[in-house]
Amino acid sequence: MALDLLSALPDTAVVLSAHPSDWREAVRLAGDALTRSGSTTSEYTGEMLAAIDELGPYIVIAPGIAIAHSRPSPSVLRSGLSWVRLDEPVEFGHSRNDPVGLVIGLAARDHADHLEVMSAIAAALADQQATAALATAASADTVRDLLANASAGQS
Amino acid sequence: MGIGTSILLKMNTEKALRKLGVPATVTTSDISAARGAAQGADLILTSAELAEKLEGTGVPVAVVNNFMNAGEIEGVLSTHVPQA
User: ipTM of this model?
Assistant: First the structure.
């Protein structure tokens, strides 16, 4: 089942040239993008930061890539993603996968939505060619096209 | 809370298991429920940051550093899973 990427990751949720001074600001930018696109209220940003304060930088799931998220909560208005690419990568304090150049914000109303939204990005993140192209994509349209193509290419 | 990231690990673990030809069921759990969810499991896969919280259940814990690297996951699995 293909997710409607234009609705889950609209232009307002995509930042391709961010300059956060540290990981906390990077996560805040991902939260701001979720709020701007209508996925969450601004409280969700604080919930994402609290999750990292509590559990550590486990959200850096691959070299250079962090998935900022919290559990389903009233601050999630509708499920969606944000995409924040950093011009200068920042350290999250992860033992192996620092520094982080891409923070993907994830908000989901329930676990089924979590699965659907994560499925939409999983194929691209597992594909080295796709991640290299995503690192230089010049527009939100290109980001969505690369995500969609990677998903379609996976049987 | 880790449902989001564990879904990625589950997808790539299932891919690795298929490649290894090992039939298995993979479930996800957030960290608050994981110790209970691990009851009856053969193996827990997690990140280095969360591994300590999952020790002591009697189920072996294996660390995956790159959730998107099927090769790393295959390597971890093949040291813990008896080959069919």
Answer: 0.87
Q: Is the pTM for the entire model greater than 0.80?
A: yes
Residue B54, in any domain of the structure = yes
Cα dihedral A84/A12/A146/A20 (nearest 10): -10
Nearest to A11, CA basis, from A148, A144, A151: A144
CB contact under 8 Å between A111 and B31, yes or no, is no
Q: Which domain holds residue B66?
A: 3-79
Question: By C-alpha distance, which of B31, B22, B41, B36 is closest to B82?
Answer: B22
User: In angstroms, what separates the C-alpha of B11 from chain A's closest C-alpha?
Assistant: 8
What structural domains does chain A harbor? 7-153 (3.40.930.10)
B11 — contact with chain A (CB < 8 Å)? yes
Nearest residue, CB atoms, A58 vs list B3, B49, B68? B49
Please judge whether B66 and A63 are an interchain contact, meaning their C-beta atoms are less than 8 angstroms apart: yes
The 10s digit of each residue's pLDDT in A101-123 is 999 999 998 888 888 888 889 88
Q: Is B52 helix (H, G, I), strand (E, B) or coil?
A: helix
- Is residue B50 included in any domain, yes or no? yes
How many residue pairs from chains A and B have C-beta atoms closer than 8 A? 73
Place of tokens 């990005």: A121
In chain B, the number of structural domains is: 1
B17 touches A: beta carbon within 8 Å: no
B84 within a domain of the structure (yes/no)? no
